[in-house]
Amino acid sequence: MKNVHILDHPLIQHKLSYIRNKETGSKDFRELVEEVAMLMGYEVTRDFPLEEIEVETPLTKCKCRIIAGRKVAIIPILRAGLGMVNGFLNLIPAAKVGHIGLYRDPETLEPVEYYCKLPADVADRDVIVVDPMLATGGSASAAINFIKQRGIKNIKLVCLIAAPEGIQKVHEDHPDVVIFTAAVDSHLNEHAYIVPGLGDAGDRLFGTK
């Protein structure tokens, strides 16, 4: 699939199995989601440019490489996306965090915006949108629209599990956005839940029903 990276590292797949398990409680679920997000972050940031600097070690001077002034914004789609934020911040502590609040209308299944707060300098940053589930793709596509309205061009979407329908929706609306996911599942059921999926990520993160 074009512009889709499936991150199949053994540690990611191992932890994802426990995330899927219905017996995993909220505490362990939250910790696992954060850990997988951090592991995924290594691949998501693989294309960051480097620049050479000189460092003096205890023995001598040497040439080293550091990230070349990359500014990043992590933008979770509320509320489930919050579970992935700290994993990325563990890797990129200087990143700023925005929030986009969307909910899915139970009748139309279309996304409805209720909150959008982005960093003031978001137009100068590379944006990583995070949400555990890419189901219909409606919420992700709408969130990306809000971000693009601020003039951002370099956007990546990171999710734990994606459905083919969601990938197709994002590709149709935003062919320039690269999707990173740990798994592409079979399909959506009649309630637009990913099958086999992991259930409702927000409810499992926060212990709600």
How would you sum up this structure, described in words?
- The protein is an alpha/beta fold and 209 residues long.
- The chain contains six helices and 13 strands.
- It has helices at 10-20, 26-44, 82-91, 138-148, 164-173, 201-206, and strands at residues 4-6, 50-56, 61-67, 72-78, 96-97, 99-104, 111-117, 126-130, 133-134, 155-162, 178-184, 187-188, 194-195.
- The strands form three sheets. Strands 1, 4, 5, 6, 7, 8, 9, 10 and 11 form a nine-stranded mixed β-sheet that branches. A two-stranded antiparallel ribbon has the order 2-3.
- β4, α3 and β5 form a beta-alpha-beta unit.
- α1 packs antiparallel against α2 (26-44) and α2 crosses α3.
- It starts with a strand and ends with a helix.
- 35% of the residues are buried.
